[in-house]
Write a structure and sequence with these properties.
Blueprint lengths: L1 H5 L7 H31 L3 H29 L2 H20 L4 H29 L4 H27 L4 H33 L6 H12 L2 H30 L5 H13 L1 H15 L1 H19 L5 H15 L3 H11 L5 H16 L2 H12 L1 H19 L12
Helix pairs in contact: 2-3, 2-4, 2-5, 2-6, 2-7, 2-9, 3-5, 3-15, 3-16, 4-5, 4-7, 5-6, 5-15, 6-7, 6-10, 6-11, 6-14, 9-10, 9-14, 9-15, 9-16, 9-17, 10-13, 11-12, 11-13, 11-14, 12-13, 12-14, 12-17, 16-17
Length: about 400
């Protein structure tokens, strides 16, 4: 059914599914860390601000990664090699988390996870944008579908493992599948990487690349879009940090219930993501994103009034159905507006903006929670996504031919 909506047979989406699998592995890693945080925080005696600081480190490192990752992708065209390297190094860093016995020990592996997480995106998203120019939104939604599966299965696996072993052992075990995914992608798409690189409009000199980068960084539409995405990212990542903390500390949820809750908030995007991506190919990116942001703000505000763990999780599931559906549409809109030979750098600019705006949220939210309680954090997150919704109306829709 989905291929009819998108206008392309699923059998032609092999590369999209493979890259989606890898994207899922990157999210499996960070989703595991999110579930571990309440338990390592208790074990190491960390307060909310200290726990939030670990996540802020992740986003700071992700921001730093964008400084050179887009240039490496655009100039080299080595999409698959770069993507696989990010998976292997990220898995090794998760193993490093498993050897942590103090907050100071966790700093380096968390930074490495942040670096490799954002090394993945310019390579993978550019590869798919070039491979599927006519159904970009749908292909990117399959890429995001993989992230959703990683966000679902990672917490669920971590939650069940935590019921029978320490958080250190859980980190070690959950790192292992990522190595297998990197090998699968290398074997399945290694040959295609060279062909795509040959068709890619690479820069011929560093000066021409810098000229293109300057043009990209001064494009008002792209800057508005990146800022809008930054406010949305503040909301999303704030929820991923404080939702499990709220469940454990306010609603006395078990590790299994926390894993289930983190799964539930992602599950709806399995359906909504591809539909939103395909719909945006037909009607444009703006209406899909604007409606999604408005719906997200309503759901988060409603969550702040939920009583009981199960009602809270149910509203979270509806929230995830709406909030995560628009991720690939934002990526598609960015690539619609950017020159094809600057796709990697456009993605880096998008993710750099998101990381820069997000890195303060975990620690700031932690300080707010320490002072006024976790419930106050949800009001702040409602405000950030409402700003994103307002900004979405200010961004011009890309011309139809930009998506073909």
């Amino acid at each position: 059914m989905l291929h009819r909506v998108a206008g392309e047979h699923l059998r032609g989406q092999t590369a999209a599914f493979m890259m989606g699998l890898g994207h899922g592995a990157t999210h499996w890693i960070i989703a595991t860390v999110y579930v571990l945080i309440p338990f390592l925080a208790k074990d190491l005696g960390l307060n909310y601000a200290q726990a939030g600081a670990l996540v802020s480190l992740f986003h700071a490192a992700a921001f730093a990664a964008n400084a050179g990752s887009g240039a490496i992708v655009d100039i080299s065209g080595r999409y698959i090699r770069i993507a696989c390297a990010s998976l292997v190094i990220g898995a090794l860093a998760l193993i490093g988390v498993g050897f942590g016995n103090a907050m100071s020990w966790l700093v380096l592996p968390i930074i490495v996870i942040g670096l490799t997480n954002n090394l993945w995106h310019p390579a993978a998203i550019s590869y798919l944008s070039i491979s599927y120019p006519n159904t970009r939104g749908f292909a990117l939604s399959l890429h995001t579908l993989g992230a959703t599966l990683g966000d679902i299965l990672g917490p669920l696996s971590a939650g069940f493992l935590l019921a029978s072993m320490s958080w250190q052992s859980t980190a070690l075990v959950n790192a292992l599948p990522v190595f297998a995914v990197a090998l699968i992608i290398a074997l399945a798409l290694g040959r295609d990487a060279t062909a795509s690189g040959a068709n890619h409009q690479r820069q011929t000199s560093s000066s021409s690349y810098l000229q293109g980068l300057k043009s990209l960084a001064t494009d008002r539409s792209i800057l508005l879009l990146c800022t809008m995405a930054g406010f949305r990212s503040m909301t999303q990542n704030g929820l991923l940090v404080f939702l499990p903390l709220y469940l454990v500390n306010e609603l006395s949820a078990t590790s299994v219930l926390v894993g289930f809750a983190m799964m539930a908030i992602q599950a709806g995007a399995i359906i909504s993501g591809p539909l939103a991506g395909a719909w945006s190919d037909k009607v444009g990116r703006k209406p899909v994103i604007s409606l999604g942001l408005i719906g997200t703000s309503v759901c988060i505000f409603a969550m702040s009034w939920m009583v009981g763990a199960y009602a809270f999780i149910a509203m979270g599931a509806l929230l995830g159905f709406i909030m995560f559906a628009i991720r690939p549409v934002i990526h598609g809109w960015t690539l619609d507006l950017a020159p094809p030979n600057m796709s990697g750098s456009a993605v880096s600019l998008l993710f750099a903006t998101q990381s820069a705006m997000t890195m303060a949220v975990p620690i700031a939210g932690g300080l707010i929670a320490d002072q006024w309680g976790l419930n106050a954090v949800f009001y702040i997150l409602t405000a950030t996504v409402s700003i994103a919704a307002l900004m979405s109306f200010m961004i011009p829709e890309a011309k139809a031919q930009s998506r073909t």
